[in-house]
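Hi support team,

I submitted a single chain yesterday and got back a structure, but I'm not sure I'm reading the token output correctly. Could someone confirm the output below corresponds to the sequence I sent? I've pasted both exactly as they appear in my results page.

Thanks,
R.
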Amino acid sequence: MMKRLLSIPQRRFFSSSFQHAPVTLFSEDETLTRESARLWATQELKPVVRAMDDAAQLLPSILSGLFQNGFMGMEIDPSHNGSGLSFTSACLVVEEIARIDPSVAILVDIQNTLTNNAVRFWGSPALQEKWLPRLATDTVSAFCLSEANSGSDAFAMQTTAQRNSDGSYVLNGTKMWISNAEHAGVFLVFANADPSKGYKGITAFVVDSQTEGITVGKPENKLGLRASSTCPLILDHVQVTANDVLGDVGMGYKYCINILNEGRIGIAAQQIGIAKGCFDITLPYLQERKQFGTPIFDFQAMQHQVAMAATEIYAAETMTYNACRLKEAGLPFVKEACMAKLYSSQVAEKTASKCIEWLGGIGFTKDLLVEN
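Hi R., thanks for writing in. Yes, this is the structure output for that exact sequence:
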């Protein structure tokens, strides 16, 4: 009986004719895009990170470099001067830039996963023709949702859009903590066009930054992400036309929910980049720094910690790019996007904190950029 069992050909249970590509296996275009972003971030961005952080200012040369390399219009169609690449490509660019400077990654993330896509998905042909070429080539955008009394409860906003008899609107209110505000040439503003309907009156408007009545306030003096401008936006009787409405009146809350679901994946990509950036700085130090005649990295207790951090980064990466693929396949992805954002944020904080500990005294200084 035993001989008969041994003579039966062993079936290869681990293989089948139906195969799925790993979620971390990227296409040729995606790989080249990632490499391009890594090269630019290393050669152009890295040398000026400390100076921008100290000055709390984004250099014009960095901003122009983002546009010149096509990083600001990743999914915009080439017919509108965009790169015409995938959502995954956009997230890979965000990750690679965050690996060097999260302040710049925020700008790229908001542009690609929020405002660009909102205009692509729901903008009228006229809005798309007007703004997509500019968003891809020279115009920074800002996503204007939060207010002083409507942060997490975003739909409690007080900003109003009063409709005139000719169909135009007058916007009044103050938005708070608006990323990119200092550099933005266009604002995606959410305002309530019919407060009697509650959140179902919320409408989205695409507003040129040069419109009379718009004032960008003083940038916040932040603990981190200092090169990313975060400012209040005051709207004082700002006149906009019916053509500036994004999609349908009263549908702004749905657009907001949908686009922020995608934005969560972009945030997860930022966090992966932050964690990897800390690793990039710390691991060489651990291999060079010696104590008791031995590189710190060679102590087993240290290796256990590094292995755990590397495992968590990989898990976050897998979750994030799985969410990307679900989104691109048109499948439900909201749960996975939320999970990826949550876990990646925890991993980024934990990895950064651990790296500061591993670096010892120098980790408490600004010499190596880990604190950034």
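A quick pointer for reading it: The chain has three domains: 28-138, 142-249, 254-364. Let us know if anything else looks off.

Best,
Support desk
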